[in-house]
Amino acid sequence: MIWFITRRLGLAIPTLFGLLVITFVLIRSVPADPAAALAGDNATPAQIAAIRHKFGLDRPLYEQFAIYVNQISRLDFGVSAFSGRLVSFDVRQRLPATLELTTTALLLAVVIGVPLGVIGAVNHNRWPDFLLRTTSVGGIAIATFWLAIMLQLLFSMQLGWLPLRGRLALGLAPPPGPTGFLLIDSVIAGQPAVFWSALQHLILPAITLSLGGMATIARFTRAGVLDTMQKDFVLYERAAGYPRRRLIWIYVLRNSVVATVTQVGLLFGALIAGAVVVESIFDWPGIGDYLVQAILTGDYKVILAVTLVIGVIYVAVNILTDIAHALIDPRLRSG
Amino acid sequence: MELTRRDTVALGVATMLATAARARAAEPDTLVSGDNLPQNLDPHQIFDVPMQGYALNTYDTLYRYEGNPPDMLPWLATSHTTSADGLTWEFKLRPDAKFHDGSTVTAADVVYSFQRVLGLAKAPAGAFLPVLKPTGITAPDATTVRFQLEHSYAPFLAAIPIVSIVNPRVLRPNEKNNDWAAAWLASNEAGSGAYVLDPKTYMPLQRVDVTRFDGHFMGWKENPHPVHAIAYRPTKETSTRLLALMQGSIDWTDSYLPVDDVGQVAASKVAHVAKDQDMRVFLIRMNNARPPFNNVNMRKGFAHAFDYDGFIKDILKGYAQRDPTPMPNTLWGFPKGENGYDFDIKKAKMYFDKAQHEGVNLRAPIEIHIQEALEQTTQAAQLYQSTLAEAGINLKIVNDTWANLTTNCARPETTAQMWVHWVSTYFVDPENWVGQMYDSQFHGTWKASCWYKNATVDALLGKARITIGQAARAPLYEEATRMIVADSPDIWIYNTVDLRGVNNRVKGFRFCPVGGGTEVRWVQLTA
Predict the structure, then answer these.
(1) Which residue of A211, B91, B132, B215 shows the fewest CB atoms closer than 10 Å?
(2) Core vs surface per residue B85-114: b (16+ CB within 10 A) or e
(3) pLDDT of A153-169, one tens digit each?
(4) Nearest CA in chain A to B423
(5) CB B39 to CB A82 under 8 A?
(6) Can you tell me the mean pLDDT for B434-445?
């Protein structure tokens, strides 16, 4: 198992380096001038040229890349052109918000999607199955921004049950905490009001973000369970009078979730990408919104850093997925 | 009674929904602004409309623009004198102004502030770098600041309110590598303004909290119930912004409320729309340095092909005032009686025929760059696309970003063929518009992105820049503007009517084209 994990980790390094090269080249191929972004509105060409020289932006691309790789090897992502702060500081401040949102969305997708898939499979070609298939297609097809606005209109404007935007009510300060996850830190700090407010603010963005993934997981689980239920061991155990509920929810499900687990790994990346839209609509102070601002302002250091951080998370999640696979199916450990 | 797990969950959900804030999220003495924030908090690094909104509340300036049309009022300075040749300017400071750390605002602090602007050489320095050297700023005594200009520069006084006065006693300990504490001030504050920043809660472009400064030199007698705190919580999406206003969780929006939403806001019981005549010109740029817009007949054809009335009356529902020139029609120096170009497809075709005879290829598609987030840029381009199609011109709409568009303005070959934007009030002087947009010395900046060059216009604008006195300068700008209109380098559409959604609890909102009325010291919040 250790060799398996080491090999997976080893493969991650060239993957991340490739990501860095591609992102760097792509960003610097765009005609926007980062020096102009640093200089700000109303700057003269002479001011822009001076800034370009000061930051080495007039050097050859390979030289700039070498400098950048050297910097990030020391975990120095430089200074953001628009915030004027260390990029690492900004990322640390915002990343937990995105991770809290995406993790909650992922949990929702799994906790609701897997049982729905099982129910659909068990009731194959009956009304629960038809309902699941129809609604899951809708869940995948639905536009995130439309769903977000509809949820805002219903739960915030009409019913007044949940907050419209933001991460915490006005007047509440985020608790100091080790994780940056408001739900966890507020529990550690013993601040129930903050926990309650954070939970209320999280619900609509998390539901919006999770719906597509929930539908995908439900469909994959349904297909997996249907396939497993055709296997001989299921027939044998049924014939042996095994309790149906135990048979389906333990033995059939365990043998069916390999594809679903793969999907969960991939889904995490999709959720981080989807968070860009959701964070924008709900004014969620996460890294997706930060990335959008960086793109709009041509802040290439932020774009590179955020892309790399997301890449690292994505690779880490996929390694964990591989490990989960290996735990579920020991045959994969030697593969 | 025994509670099952299911009962417990149901009870929890019910409690959560019951305790959810049905009422407004705002607090009674905190104004929640949904307007945009500057990219960072250093007023000497950033110089744009969102920065004006922040800096007007946290910093003071020697003079300040107030009212509409804006008057320049003594602020930290009580008066000023100018030498006959216009080279020496002296400002007398009031002795009682305090910074937020309690220290007195002195002439030495003003000298430091202007030297910092020049030293950083970022956007706000643009108005001063050509005429002012750091050694030309001195403090003969604690309440006198003297500026010795390199050459006469009439807009100097108008540009004075650009520079926020900062506290060197706070900044110097935070300087690193001679950076003028730029990294520190980007997320902190060192001012004397009516409100004080809480740097602990600051999150770039997301969250700014400020509280009232009781020791502000102006005192608070003019406003017996001032706002205690301002919570800046910008909304990114137009739909969320509107919902937040209608729900009462923000007290005002930005000043670009879509005209389609005006009726809905006006009909609500929660909010109203503040409609104020601004000095913000909306225009479509043409790159005069490249084909086909290096041909004057092509440019005139385009000027006649835009449906000005249709855009203003039908799309903007009348919330704009036709402005046929690059100058705001509410500013001195505007050429009275100048009607510019009207919408006339026949005339447009006539000019296009002339251009074709002069070798212009009318079949080549032309790109117009818009910013999708700014709805009006798209609407203008789409309308233009349809009217130009009638004249046989193929207009392609390209979505772009402000950063891309402005950085590409550095060279004629990278500047967009056409692009749509506004020119806002950075300082109230024709130099802010016609001076910096059409004098060829500004080529390479976004304001001069049409690459227009006319030696006579350059000379007129240069003369206006060194002539002392508004009465003497106004005719020069009028003449220059008429010549520019005759050459048709751009398509000028309207002078903006600002549309800002404002919660009904907000009283005392005072509009000024500089800052758009976001100076909060005059505002009260009613129950």
Answers:
(1) B215
(2) ebbebbbbbeeebebbeeeebbbebbbbbb
(3) 999 999 999 999 999 99
(4) A42
(5) yes
(6) 92
